[in-house]
Amino acid sequence: MRVGLYPGTFDPVTNGHLDIIGRAVKLVDKLVIGVAINEEKAPLFTLEERVRMLQAECRPKFDGQIEVRPFDSLLMTFAEEVGAGIIVRGLRAVADFEYEFQMTAMNQQLNREIETVFLMADPRHQAIASRLVKEIARLGGEIDAFVPPAIATAVRAKFPR
What is the pTM of this model? Predict the structure, then answer.
């Protein structure tokens, strides 16, 4: 069975993330969505909330093909734990590539058996970043074009006006 791992903070999950997930499930038999704890990013949502939101958004569309799991370890250690042969990463812009290029080189040093596969963001989603979605919501802007309806509601609830 070919297992892929799509790691991220997903704070919150965006339409861009869901597009990458939908395309990644076509490449593997099972896709593990690894939700990183990453306290350095000061997440808006708790780890449990992020896992639940991803499950709610993904299960109806990809039931049986995905598993959502939190992790707080080196990415390659987690990839080994879940039996992943590939890491899936989304790329939006050149800045993403520079960061991902460095991460891939380091990950290769840790485990040469696990490949990294890059999926280019759909042009409709290239500008979407969780960080920007939160900023727009915090300032009272409209975020419905960037996240699913349930996620928009959850984000707005964090920034009452």
Answer: 0.93
